[in-house]
């Protein structure tokens, strides 16, 4: 397993709609393993393939936070939200492609998602709480949408300017 570099906003690859996955191959399973390794290393609770420069509809996540609880790594190919609750929740979201920047985002409190798993089987599950926020955030990445796109233009521009500066500093280092 390899920790891959994570793209930092602004990057045009983060704004592209990712390509659907046709069939699960050993290469795609290895990609999912690399993505989980990258996510845990960051550390984060979710990562979408476009964030490592791969335009495929694949997300990984693990929202288990409780001390001593077993991790629950998930890899979702071609995930689709099939139902959303009318109730909403507000979470302070962050993103591995927008380091150290956080903002409150309102999303449906519960969602049902259908996807293909690592064995090529169709799965469907309802997510609530942090899991619901995370899966929606990651699916947004597959559609070229970032959490800052939910913010008012001024706040979004401020965060984007900070990221441009961060990228410049990293390039010099």
How does this structure look, described?
The protein has 173 residues and is α+β, with helices and mostly antiparallel strands. The protein has a single domain, classed as Peptide Deformylase (Alpha-Beta Complex), CATH 3.90.45.10. 29% of the residues lie in helices and 29% in strands. It has 3 helices and 7 strands; from the N terminus they run αβββββββαα. It has helices at residues 26-41, 129-142, 153-172, and strands spanning 46-48, 58-61, 74-84, 88-95, 98-108, 110-116, 122-128. Strands 1-2-3-6-7 form a 5-stranded antiparallel β-sheet. A hairpin with a 5-residue loop joins strand 6 (110-116) and strand 7. The longest helix has 20 residues, at 153-172. The mean pLDDT is 97.
Q: Write down the secondary-structure element order.
A: HEEEEEEEHH
Distinct helical segment count:
3
**CATH class descriptor:** Alpha Beta
How many structural domains can be distinguished in the coordinates? 1
Strand residue percentage: 25-35%
* CATH H-level superfamily title: Peptide deformylase
The CATH architecture would be Alpha-Beta Complex
The first-to-last residue Cα distance is: 26 Å
What keywords describe this structure?
Peptide Deformylase, globular, 7 strands, two-stranded antiparallel ribbon, 29% helix, alpha+beta, 173 residues
């Amino acid at each position: 397993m390899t920790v891959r570099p994570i793209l930092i906003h602004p990057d045009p690859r983060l704004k592209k709609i990712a390509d659907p996955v046709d069939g699960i191959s050993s290469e795609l399973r290895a990609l999912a393993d690399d993505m989980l390794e990258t996510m845990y290393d960051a550390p984060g609770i979710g990562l979408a393939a476009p964030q490592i420069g791969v335009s495929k509809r694949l997300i990984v996540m693990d929202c288990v936070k409780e001390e001593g609880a077993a991790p629950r790594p998930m890899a979702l190919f071609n995930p689709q939200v099939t139902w959303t609750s009318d109730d909403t929740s507000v979470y302070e979201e962050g993103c591995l492609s927008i380091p150290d920047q956080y903002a409150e985002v309102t999303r449906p409190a519960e969602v049902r998602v259908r996807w293909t798993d690592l064995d090529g089987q169709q799965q469907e599950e309802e997510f609530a709480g942090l899991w619901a926020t995370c899966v929606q955030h990651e699916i947004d990445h597959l559609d070229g949408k970032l959490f800052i796109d939910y913010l008012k233009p001024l706040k979004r521009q401020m965060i984007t300017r900070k990221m441009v500066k961060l990228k410049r500093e990293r390039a010099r280092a």
